[in-house]
Amino acid sequence: MPVSHPPRKSEQTQSDGLSDRGGPKATPPLAFAAVILANVALAFGPLFVRMADTGPVASAFWRITLAAPMLALVAWLGRARPRAPSGTQAGLWMLLLVGGIAFAGDLGAWHIGIRQTTMANATLFGNSATFIFPLYGFLAARAWPSRVQGLALLLAALGAGLLMGRSYQVDPRHLVGDLMCVLAGVLYALYFILMARVRIAMPPIPALAWSTAASIAPLFLFALALGERIWPGHWTPLLLLALGSQIVGQGLMIYALGLLSPLVVGVALLVQPIVATAIGWVVYGETLALPDWAGVAMVAAALVLVRRGSTSRAVAKPNDRDDG
User: Fold this and answer.
1) Residue 12 pLDDT more than 50?
2) pTM of this prediction?
3) Where is this region: Disordered (predicted)?
């Protein structure tokens, strides 16, 4: 669904960015650092969800609701203020609305799954966009991955399998949680696809502010329908969730989304299960063994390959960097 009608040159730029094969320009170091830091911050989300004394979907609602005013303020004070799309930009409105609803579904499903499976599985399954989003990029660009890109995806898949392998148990008690996290991963990939389109026409912070606002009502209604406890007794975990996951984590992610290809963003998502596995080890005694370390090494190698072998051209407007 087009959000605007940019000149033909812009369309080619977008295609190059999606395919990650557009030319000799290296992946922007600042954007690559942003996507890594974003995933480190997001990996702490499951910990704060488990600490919250509200229902799981209600904690997602507070993550969004507490972050929304801060994001709106930052966007308003920034160089690119969050002006509403005009009536002639109905496609952009629709992308923001559907993106916000998809993100609400992702958070709701993921937060339910977090409390019903292990930390590592929740984060790994919840980031199945690792493979869905790059696939979208190659399909959109009508290009096959290069040998280096294929090797990076293979290493990422093997590393993810090793990270999950020991922690996963064929246990009916984990099945619902795992399935909810898989659903969350699919919705997360849809959110990425929609927001990548939004970022063609809108800088990162306003884009995140609008999509965040669109997520509030669906999450509130979802929590009410499930009969969850909504009002918290302790605010600290929810404040940390809003600050760390939505403002810092998603803020950096949306910035990087406009400057990196889906392949780089997708492989970088595997930083989350690495950090989450470490958190589960320290906090919950979910011990690490040789396969886990091997998985970490494979994911790290995949990141090196996509960092060195990838090319990326900015999909968003040039002034996006100023607002990031």
Assistant:
1) no
2) 0.78
3) 1-23
Sequence-distant (≥ 6) Cβ neighbours of residue 67 within 8 angstroms: 212, 242, 243, 246, 247
Q: What is the pLDDT of residue 168?
A: 55
d(CA 247, CA 41): 10
- Position of tokens 């669906």? 218
Q: DSSP 3-state assignment of 226?
A: coil
Distances (CA, A) of 39 to 130, 246, 318: 12, 11, 24
User: Does residue 311 sit in helix, strand or coil?
Assistant: strand
Closest among 79, 108, 36, 55 to 306, alpha carbons compared: 36
pLDDT tens, residue by residue, 182-224: 899 999 999 999 998 898 888 888 999 999 999 999 999 999 9
**Residue 62's Cα: distance from chain center in Å?**
18
The pLDDT value given to residue 186? 92
Q: How many angstroms separate the CA atoms of 32 and 257, rounded?
A: 10
Q: What is the C-alpha to C-alpha distance for residues 230 and 224, in angstroms, rounded to an integer?
A: 8
CA separation for the pair 179, 161 (Å, rounded): 16
